[in-house]
Design a protein that fits this description.
Number of strands: 20
Oligomer: single chain
CATH topology of the domain at 3-41 and 61-77 and 244-325 and 473-531: FAD/NAD(P)-binding domain
Distance between the termini: 18 Å
Shape: globular
């Protein structure tokens, strides 16, 4: 049976793309290699009675238009805001208690910051306004297809002008945008604040899934990328999906099925078939051929163009550039089953408190983060890693037995490729021990409370979810890989060099995170081509 569109990869963007295409009346089939759809946004039991998000672990960037259009709430999705945005324990056992809290609102953050620096507390509202102005611009850009994506370098100037909303943004705000798109997060934050704790709290967003120092140029944009989302209408907030991140993709799958999408799991696509310079369908690993008028790939662009499309169908220069596509993350992901909540040296008590529901960041300064990056580059992983811990069971009692808890640990920096030919299969538990020891320094009861743990190294992320280099974004969010240059200048409009082939994953604009926007935007461009008879 021939289809109008085949979607390669049943992650969240693939499901979103499929649902929009099917709503327009096209016959669509999703092909997913694993036995469950959702990609990195899934939930699973990792120890008897303990269930959690497997890889992606928190929600903010999921676009409200996607939530509404796909009726995700009707399909059971419920998202709750964190009681605090972030909590930074700053003292270890035996030291005077010190911590920094972000939230639940600006006044509370300002009050906590005043304990460290009256100057920084006074400057915090100005910094917040600057970030909010930039985030508003990014929200507008995120729903757009990069203009004239097949043009020249002048496109980048046009893109910047569009970002300035055709002169409606004043010159000081344009200067702020230029800073955020080009500077390092460290340089940006050093210009605003003097306190290590507040710089660490905000600078953490610049290295999440980003294999870089916070002083690497362009990391200020990665910081911005992580703050343009919202939870239940509250901009900049982060939250938990009840039931874990799989609740999002299962709701998407339900809506796709309701619209007539056919979803196939255990369907490993080995090749995108091309006939007469057009995409004509796919070949599965078991030898099955499936025909279609168009194919949309929800995979890393490097995988699409170097593994799934035969070399003879692409220009050599295109393949050479795609071979240099930067996709390597320094991430190690852990799920931990806990007998009790961690009791922090700076915040005594193992009973649930607001800080237990926050993003708990164990990285006290930008210098600490930079050293973690240097360690990974030279030694393979940070000897004092950056650890963000979330404990979703504090707001979602479905995840663990009564009195017990689950924790998500998102850790940086762990090199995608270890030195001296060492394999991550050999080093996995050794690196995981370093993470546990890091948390233990701030919460002395943590190690004894661990009942079980599940660890995903960069290699595991690649093998399990197809995240090339362990890259959660399907490609670095660097200036040369954004907007019209994502994944390559000339093909930033979701269309491939082969007619009828499209990119609908995070390797396309606006990039990574559980947003649904690459799938949304790609579907819009595909429908335009179908209406114009170009497919």
């Amino acid at each position: 049976m021939a289809y109008d569109v085949l979607i390669v990869g049943g992650g969240h963007n693939g499901l979103v793309c499929a649902a929009y295409l099917a709503r327009a009346g096209l016959k669509v089939r999703v092909l997913e290699r694993r036995d469950v759809v959702g990609g990195a946004a899934t939930s699973a039991e990792f120890h008897p009675g303990f269930r959690n998000s497997v890889a992606a672990y928190t929600v903010s960037l999921l676009h409200p238009k996607v939530i509404a259009d796909l009726r995700l709430a009707r399909h059971g999705l419920k998202i709750v805001e964190r009681p605090l945005a972030n909590f930074l324990p700053l003292s270890e056992a035996g030291e005077a208690p010190r911590s920094f809290r972000v939230g639940p609102d600006l006044a509370a953050t300002q009050g906590d910051l005043a304990r460290f620096s009256a100057r920084d507390a006074a400057r915090l509202p100005g910094y917040t306004r600057m970030i909010e102005r930039a985030a508003d611009t990014l929200r507008a850009l995120a729903l757009e297809t990069p203009p004239l994506a097949r043009g020249g370098w002048s496109d980048l100037v046009e893109a910047f002008n569009l970002g300035c909303v055709a002169n409606r943004i004043d010159l000081p705000t344009r200067r702020e945008l230029l800073d955020l798109f080009t500077k390092s997060a460290g340089d940006l934050l050093d210009g605003w604040f003097e306190t290590d704790a507040v710089k660490a709290a905000f600078g953490f967003d610049s290295i999440v899934g980003n294999y870089a120092s916070p002083y690497t140029p362009n990391t200020a944009y990665v910081l911005l990328h992580h703050v343009f989302g919202e939870v239940n209408g509250k901009r900049g907030a982060w939250g938990h999906a009840i039931g874990g991140m799989g609740a999002i993709t299962q709701a998407m799958a339900k809506e796709a099925l309701a619209r007539g999408v056919e979803i196939s799991t255990g369907a490993h696509v080995a090749e995108v078939r091309v006939r007469g310079a057009r995409a004509a369908g796919v070949a599965l690993a078991d030898g099955t051929y499936i025909d279609a008028r168009a194919v949309a790939a929800n995979v890393n662009p490097k995988m699409l163009y170097l593994e799934l499309v035969a070399a003879e169908h692409l220009e050599p220069e295109f393949r050479e550039r795609m071979a240099r596509w930067k996709c390597a993350s320094g991430t190690l992901r852990m799920n931990v089953a806990l007998a009790e909540l961690p009791e922090f040296a700076c915040a005594p008590g193992a009973q649930a408190q607001p800080h237990h529901g926050a993003g708990i960041i164990m990285a006290p300064s930008l210098r600490y983060m930079e050293q973690a990056y240097f360690d990974a580059r030279t030694l393979g992983w940070a000897r004092a890693p950056i650890v963000e811990m979330l404990i979703p069971s504090t707001v979602d009692t479905t995840l663990a037995p009564r009195g017990a808890h689950v924790a998500s640990l998102f850790c940086q920096h762990f090199a995608p490729v270890l030195p001296e030919g060492r394999s991550w299969d050999e080093a996995r538990e050794e690196a995981a021990d370093v993470v546990i020891d890091t948390v233990e320094r701030y919460a002395p009861n943590f190690k004894a409370a661990v009942l079980a743990r599940s660890t995903l190294t960069p290699l595991d992320l690649e093998r399990e979810f197809g995240l090339t280099g362990g890259d959660i974004f399907h490609g670095a969010l660097s200036l040369d890989q954004l907007w019209a240059a994502r994944p390559m200048l000339g093909y930033g409009d979701y269309r491939a060099p082969i007619k009828g082939l499209y990119l609908c994953g995070s390797g396309a604009h606006p990039g990574g995170g559980v947003t649904g926007l690459p799938g949304h935007n790609a579907a819009r461009e595909m429908l335009r081509d179908f209406r114009r008879g170009r497919v």
